């Protein structure tokens, strides 16, 4: 499985960056995990958008979904004839995605009509070609799901946005790569500091920890040092364009 970071910014983009978005390739499938502001342009730098088989959303905050508007515009108005990609979204998605395009700015079905939308239940296990997706609700300001993508025995676990919790420790147990948010400078509700992300990953026994969803206005050396203090081992900092391979080469 190959993971390309398209956007690692938090709720507002880094200079030249993008909010939450990761291209995951494995099991014969190209999957876009989250589609925040700026992600569509970053996606186009690494692959054609018509080659994306599915988009999967962890939750419905703007920094994880807004570029579905422009992605849908490309599918509708671009020059390619292609099958609609699947869009796997959490409960409540139909109303939220319609509201992004309501009020006369665009058709309310702008997104819904461009993708093959299905609403997942976090209890579901979703098979996408040779990739298997599982979900685990994690504490955030709105319903939010950590996501596991597995190809055979290789596992990627994405924290999505969350505060400290035990659910993710259990869900990410022994994972090959934990892609964890590390939004905060000081502990607060709803998100993790780099040290808290490191501690959570250590409790889970994650083999590898990549920190993401932190701002370029945070001191990267401090983010790394705090993450490593919590994890007790080296950590990696996500950067736009970075590629991680797990499982078979
Ligand atoms: Zn976020
Ligand atoms: Zn969020």
Bound molecules: zinc ion
Q: Tell me the CATH topology.
A: Metallo-beta-lactamase, Chain A
Number of helices: 7
Regions with little confidence, pLDDT below 50 for 5+ residues = none
N- to C-terminal distance: 8 Å
β-strand amount: 25-35%
Order of helices and strands: EEEHEHHEHEEEEEHEHEHEE
Number of domains: 1
Q: Characterize the main sheet.
A: 7 strands, mixed
Order of strands in the sheet with most strands = 6-5-4-3-2-1-14
Residues in helix, %: 10-25%
Indicate the radius of gyration in whole angstroms. 17 Å
Number of strands: 14
CATH class: Alpha Beta
Q: What's the name of the CATH homologous superfamily?
A: Ribonuclease Z/Hydroxyacylglutathione hydrolase-like
Structural summary, described in words:
The chain is an alpha/beta fold. The protein has a single domain (2-245), classed as Ribonuclease Z/Hydroxyacylglutathione hydrolase-like (Metallo-beta-lactamase, Chain A, 4-Layer Sandwich), CATH 3.60.15.10. The chain is built from 7 helices and 14 strands. It has helices spanning 39-46, 62-65, 68-77, 93-100, 167-171, 194-204, 220-231, and strands at residues 2-7, 21-26, 29-33, 54-56, 86-89, 116-119, 126-128, 131-138, 144-151, 154-158, 177-181, 209-212, 236-237, 243-245. The strands form 2 sheets. It has a 7-stranded mixed β-sheet. It has a 7-stranded mixed β-sheet with strand order 7-8-9-10-11-12-13. A hairpin with a 2-residue loop joins strand 9 and strand 10. Helix 6 (194-204) packs parallel to helix 7. The structure holds zinc ion (2 copies). One zinc ion (ZN) binds at residues 59, 61, 140, 161.
